[in-house]
Amino acid sequence: MPCSNRSAAPATSPTRRPGTSSAPPPWAPEAHRPGAEWGGFCTEFGAHPSPLSTSSRRAAAGGRGRAHVGSMRTRIDPPPGLTDLVALQGGVASIEQVMGLGLPRRSLQRLVAQRRWVHLCRGIYGVEPLTWVSHAWAGTLLGGDRSRIGGTAALHLHGLVAEPPEQIDVWVPREQRPGDRGPWRFRRETPVTHSGATVGGPPRLAVEDAVLDAAADLAEDDWAALVITTVQCRRSTARRLARAARHRQRLRHRRVLDGLLGDVTDGVESPLERAYLHAVERAHGLPRGVRQHRSHGMRRDVVYRGLGVVVELDSRWHDGRIRFDDMWRDNVARLSDEITLRYGWPHVVGSPCRTAQQVAELLIARGWPGLPTRCDRCRRVP
């Protein structure tokens, strides 16, 4: 039979027996909740709504109405602005940043309970995996406005120290007094302690301030190696380091720095090259070589121009491609009628007088008219 000929359903609601009403799900619209039809239900059976009907319904439902209200609470996830900030700050944020960007405290607690976020320390939250950089960011958030990373941690962030330190120094304005906790050590500074420059993220001291600060903790040779590496890696220049040093009333190894920056300006790029300059060349009156000399597309450590003598200083044992590059340099020197001498730490530091004697003999054989001089530790000079 065609559907159009079917009898229509009665317009009136089907009869329901008292006590058999079924509670709708919590997401049901308000019009279908218990009580929205309570008046019609009572009228259908000849009853009238009671003022206590709401309490009666809660009692009859065993408190289910309150559970429904709780389940209707809106779930708030981190807004995009907060997500972007956390990604920018190494995965961490302060409670002020979290709430200021629209995530309520209750929602944050839910994320921590669900292990989607972690409570790093008081007032600092983050998203795993947390790294050393995350803890560095957390230190600046704990330190407040104008705080910045210093010490070995700053050197690591500048790429001058390979391994991240366990302790993270955080410089804060003098009026702030955060207490040390966890891996963070907070140090107060005045406007004259460092330059006003703050760089990078997480915020850190300028590389010149970080290098000069390290003089207080490092031995002379270690600090000299750091200064040379800073210039060699082009993190700074001798002029900028000297300018930063002039603004400091107190600076350990200041006398060493003055001579060291002159060596760097002359082309010294490693502690071994500096040792050769002072313990071999200058101490024994050898002619002044040209540092970092470029020819035939290659760079040589020390070249005694006009004499055809090249000195290569290898601070570590070479292997692989670096060793083959050394072979190329030696072959080019031979084709150019040059002789290459190679020395390492044992020759320059362990036996500087013997090394000077060998270099002097070759220089004299190649036409140098001078003679080497005797240093304080010399035993025999021809």
Automatic annotation (TrEMBL):
Region listing for Disordered, in residue ranges: 1-78, 181-201
Composition bias type Basic and acidic residues, residue spans: 181-191
Biased amino acid composition, Polar residues: 1-22
Residue ranges annotated for the AbiEi antitoxin N-terminal domain, each copy included: 83-125
Pfam families hit by this protein: AbiEi_4
Signal peptide residues on this chain, from the entry's feature table: none
Protein name (record): AbiEi antitoxin N-terminal domain-containing protein
Organism: Desertihabitans brevis
